[in-house]
Specification:
The structure is a single chain. The chain is mostly helical. Helix content is 76%, strand content 1%. Helix 12 (344-368) runs parallel beside helix 14, helix 17 (469-488) runs parallel beside helix 19 and helix 24 (671-694) packs antiparallel against helix 26 (711-721). The longest helix is centred in the first third of the chain and has 82 residues, at 71-152. The chain starts with a helix and ends with a helix. Residues 399-752 form the Exocyst complex subunit EXOC6/Sec15 C-terminal domain. Keywords: Coiled coil, Cytoplasm, Exocytosis, Transport. Residues 51-220 form the Exocyst complex component EXOC6/Sec15 N-terminal domain.
Length: 789
């Protein structure tokens, strides 16, 4: 045993330092990885391997030494292990016995376990089955709910149910057959719902089109009522203002505004449209429904815009326009409440189509209409249509422009109708003063047209200065003003007063004045008719102020604004000219009549030898005629016209007297003829003075008189009766006494003046001496006039 330890020492002494380090690391159980990695990196794995082998040999020696040193202990341990082996065998037998017993007991438990596991499996399957059944039941319940909605026609809830099934349940349906059935049924339901709601929309489209006329008529009637209320309010306001301005008291008026909710008044059902819109939205085809609705409504509009030419437009225009109004009221409601069904651009396009058609139709119908009343009826309804639709936001200016284009045609027709009426009024006129037996007649024919000349109510029966033609014409003009205002109201023009004045001037100038002038220049009228026409024309001229005030009243213009001078009618001046023409025609007829009465060349004995004691017989008829003429003129003509008539008649008489002396028929005359004409002239002068004062003209024309109208005849008679006619050539005397006489006329007349020859006793009488002196003076005048000429 000793040699072995020596070997160990040799080996130990032969260890290197690296071997010791490696052995230490291995003994400590440390990681040799870094050393191995280092050896390979250095390229010396063989050295490391050698060192490891050395360490292994060293460990084997240590083990061998350990075994030798504990040999006895090892033997004891082996013996103990043999004892343990015996005990183990005994234990093994016991374990086998216990195992048999355990197996006997475990077999029954195993059977129970298998039964339990089977029960757990069944439970799991039942649970899954219940879960699947619940899922299927939920789907089926939704299907039943959907079917109920379909049966009740509640398509929107039905689609919402289908959408719920499709999104939340369809993918999770455990039963394949049920899943396939549901997948197959969903498109069928959607198609069915689409067809049903489309059918309902079609029915609604038919219904709403048939209801459009009623809707439009109702809305237009509300606009008409509102317009009437506004007009009544304005009329009350105007009267209150006029009374206030007149100083009759302070008046207060209130503006009652009645709020009307058009949507509550115009009831029509849009539920089918809303429902269809929602249904198509749920189906994801909203745009398709919008296009469908828009196309169908455009087709309906085009159909509504077509007019039947088998029926007169005047009989169908209200229905036609009400249908259009109802159509766009419905579209406005759809645009505002059925969000997304219509766009504002689509409504605007439809409105433009309707406006173009309506304006074209109005132009065409206005061109073919020959009744102003029909045009006014159409215009009124069209303005109500425009006013109604303007409340719903539609631009109606183009329609109003079409009406404005027709105003000339309307007024031409209205002027034509008024011309016929005025011609009829003059044709039916008796040219006699109207006699009004009671106050109501006076009010209806005088006061209503403000033709009174005094604020005091006259005694009845009252004889008016005009004939029945005047109030008849005033009524015609008043109706014309009303018709003109009615047409121009509620149109494009806010201030229609100037237009009404323009057309009123046309009526009074182009119609009334022409008719009056035609009557004046008619060959069938006499003096009384001419005088009555002149009186009527004067009254009509005065009535122009009433026409102006009436037009202003209807136009809502304050009365004070028409009282300005610049606001008068041109027709007033024209009628004044026509009145003057009537006066001239009257004077012409009067002069003709006077010539018939006078006929001086036949009624005067120009060379009589008898000295007259008074005037000629014809002068009595002339004075009676003049008295009748001026009495009638005083009753019906203004004082200025009376003055013109009197002056014209007397001037004509004066000219007739002078003309008689100048007539070729009168070859010569003597002093007796001059003396008889002097008597006639004095009678006329007395009549002229009496009439000038009795008629009140002397208070107005203080610087003149009727006598002055006879001055030429008087100066001629005075000259022929003068004892010294040669004084005519004296400028001072001629300017004072003979300023109206013409040299040539006097020369011609004096040449015809041949006084009677002296009797055989004439030279003895004083008178003959005077006659001789006068004759010599006349001869001197004749000679001097010849020299002057």
């Amino acid at each position: 045993m000793d040699p072995k330890p020596k070997r160990r020492a040799v080996v130990e002494n032969g260890d290197t330092g690296e071997d010791l380090v490696l052995a230490t690391l291995i003994g400590n159980g440390e990681d040799l990885g870094p050393i191995v990695r280092h050896a390979f990196e250095m390229g010396r794995p063989e050295a490391l391997l050698q060192q490891l082998k050395t360490v292994v040999k060293k460990k084997e020696v240590e083990i061998e030494d350990l075994c030798k040193s504990h040999y006895e202990e090892f033997i004891l341990a082996v013996d103990e292990l043999r004892g343990v082996l015996v005990d183990a065998e005994e234990l093994k037998g016991e374990l086998a016995s216990d195992n048999l017993k355990l197996q006997d007991v475990g077999n029954s438990l195993l059977i129970k376990l298998e039964e339990l596991l089977e029960s757990y499996s069944i439970k799991k399957n039942v649970t899954e089955g219940i879960k699947m059944s619940k899922s299927c039941v939920q789907v089926l319940e939704l299907c039943v709910k959907c079917n109920n909605h379909m049966t009740d026609g509640n398509f929107y809830p039905a689609l919402k149910t289908v959408d719920l099934v499709e999104k939340n349940y369809l993918k999770n349906i455990p039963v394949r057959s049920l899943k396939l059935a549901v997948e197959k049924t969903i498109p069928v339901i959607k198609t069915h719902v689409e067809k049903k709601v489309t059918s309902q929309v079609n029915e609604w489209l038919v219904h709403v089109r048939s209801s459009a006329k009623t809707i439009g008529q109702t809305a237009i009637s509300h606009s008409a009522s509102a317009r009437q209320r506004d007009e009544e309010m304005l009329e009350r306001q105007r009267r209150a203002e006029e009374q206030n301005v007149s100083g009759l008291g302070d008046f207060a008026f209130t503006l009652d505004v009645e709020e009307i909710d058009e949507d509550s008044v115009l009831q029509f059902d849009l539920a089918p449209l809303y429902r269809a819109h929602h249904v198509h939205a749920c189906l994801g085809i909203r745009d398709q429904f919008r296009d469908y609705y828009y196309r169908n409504r455009v087709l309906q509009l085009n159909s509504d815009l077509q007019i039947s030419y088998g029926q007169p437009f005047i009989e169908s225009y209200q229905t036609y326009l009400a249908q259009i109004a109802g159509y766009f009221i419905v579209e406005d409601r759809v645009l505002r409440t059925a969000s997304g069904v219509l766009s504002s651009d689509q409504v605007e396009t439809m409105w433009e189509t309707a406006v173009n058609k309506v304006t074209y139709l109005l132009d065409d119908q206005f061109n073919h209409t020959d009744s102003a009343t029909h045009l006014l009826l159409v215009k009124d309804y069209v303005t109500l249509l425009a006013e109604t639709l303007r409340q719903y936001g539609y631009d109606t200016s183009q329609i109003l422009e079409a009406l404005d284009k027709g105003r000339e045609k309307y007024h031409d027709l209205l002027l034509g109708e008024c011309r016929e009426q005025i011609v009829g009024a003059l044709g039916n006129d008796t040219y006699e003063q109207m006699v009004m037996k009671k106050e109501s007649d006076y009010e209806n024919n005088v006061l209503v047209f403000q033709l009174q000349t005094s604020e005091i109510m006259p005694a009845f029966p009252y004889v008016a200065p005009f004939s029945s033609m005047v109030p008849d014409t005033c009524r015609i003009v008043r109706s014309f003003i009303k018709g003109s205002v009615d047409y121009l109201s509620y149109g494009l023009h806010t201030n229609i007063y100037s237009l009404v004045m323009k057309y009123l001037d046309r009526l009074l100038i182009d119609v009334l004045n022409e008719v009056v002038l035609s009557a004046i220049h008619s060959s069938t009228i006499g003096v009384s008719q001419a005088m009555q026409i002149a009186a009527n024309t004067s009254v009509l001229e005065r009535a122009c102020d009433f026409f102006l005030r009436h037009a202003a009243q209807l136009c809502g213009i304050p009365a004070r604004s028409v009282e300005r001078p610049q606001s008068s009618l041109t027709a007033k001046v024209i009628l004044k000219t026509s009145r003057d023409a009537a006066y001239l025609e009257l004077l012409t007829l009067v002069n003709t009549k006077l010539e018939e009465f006078m006929a001086l060349t036949d009624n005067i004995q120009w060379t009589t030898e008898e000295t007259p004691q008074n005037g000629n017989e014809y002068i009595n008829e002339v004075v009676i005629y003049l008295d009748t003429l001026l009495s009638t003129a005083q009753q019906i003509l203004p004082l200025d016209a009376l003055y013109k008539v009197g002056c014209g008649a007397l001037e004509h008489i004066s000219n007739s007297i002078v003309g008689a002396f100048l007539s070729d028929i009168v070859k010569r005359f003597n002093a007796n003829a001059v003396l008889s004409l002097n008597y006639d002239l004095k009678m006329l002068e007395n009549f002229a003075d009496e009439r000038f004062h009795s008629t009140g003209l002397s208070e107005i024309y203080k610087g003149g008189s009727f006598r002055e109208c006879l001055v030429e005849a008087r100066q001629l008679i005075n000259l022929l009766s003068s004892s010294q006619p040669e004084n005519f050539m004296n400028p001072v005397i001629r300017e004072r006494n003979y300023n109206t006489l013409d040299y040539k006329k006097v020369a011609t007349i004096c040449e015809k003046f041949k006084d009677s020859a002296d009797s055989i006793f004439g030279s003895l009488s004083n008178r003959n001496a005077k006659q001789s002196a006068k004759k010599r003076s006349m001869e001197v005048l004749k000679k001097r006039l010849k020299d002057f000429n």
